[in-house]
Amino acid sequence: MIKSMTAYARCQTPVEGGEISWEIRSLNTRFLEQSLKMPEEWRPLELDIRKRIGHYLKRGKLEVYLRFQRAPGVGQQLDLDEVLVAELFALQKKIEGASNEVAPLRVVDVLRWQGVVAERDSNLSKFNDEVMELLETALTELVASRCREGESLKELILDRCTTISTLVDKVRESAPAIRESIHSRLKQRLEEFEVKGDPYRLEQELVVQLHKLDVDEELDRMQCHLKEVADVLETDQPVGRRLDFLMQELNREANTLGSKAANIDLSGAAIDIKVLIEQMREQVQNIE
Asked: How much is the pTM?
């Protein structure tokens, strides 16, 4: 199934004292890039998290957030460094002994002193299993979102392939008329210059001109590339790079077709085809 690289997923689960949540944003890029932000207590899980993400995704620029939100009414658990507090008051007494003009320590002053109050270890590591299970859920949701978007991209690309194929058929049908037009113009030019041409030489020159302007090979290769695009879109592997290569090949054939345009209709068809290819190329950039 075709997958887009643009997607979003968010999952959360309640745990003791709060809620764990994963938030994943995915954008298009050539390779798999992971930017992880999480509480430091869960940092030892980073390697396993990256491996798990790599199991689900092959390409994309990911912004991944792991958060712990305390439940309403559950405050921070704080510890008081009683030894440090005792030392502060002991120092105060020494200073008071040296001077009678020292203001006594206030409780708020003590509490503001660095190191007196510290947040108690919240022990988030006890939720490691919940973190990894929830990651599986978030990645499953992200992949599902990518698949839905990928199916939309697939339909857009196939629709444009069908339109290009129709234009190619019209160009092929007009080829006899184009050859006849070239033949008529060449004879007319000879008559305008009052030159009596050797019929055999005239036919030779006509063959040369037709060979230069023949587009059958380009049309054949274009149809082959269009068929390959359709086949690739049916595979269940990352195909973005393959499709990007095929867009380049289609564009090359369209450029050659335009350079060989012998009349305004062929030139217009070549331009229409190039526009459609560019539209597909833009969509392909989002495919994994």
From this structure: 0.70
Q: What's 150-284's CATH class?
A: mainly alpha
Spatial separation of the C-alpha atoms in residues 158 and 141, rounded to whole Å: 26
Separation of alpha carbons 64 and 10, rounded Å: 10
The CATH number of 7-74+126-146, from 3.10.20, 3.30.230, 2.20.200, 3.20.20, is 3.30.230
Both tokens assigned to 31: 């390779």
How, if at all, do strands 117-119 and 78-80 pair?
antiparallel
β-sheet bridge partners, residue 13: 20
Instruction: Give the tens place of pLDDT for each residue, 70-121.
Output: 877 555 666 777 888 888 888 888 887 777 777 777 888 777 777 777 665 5
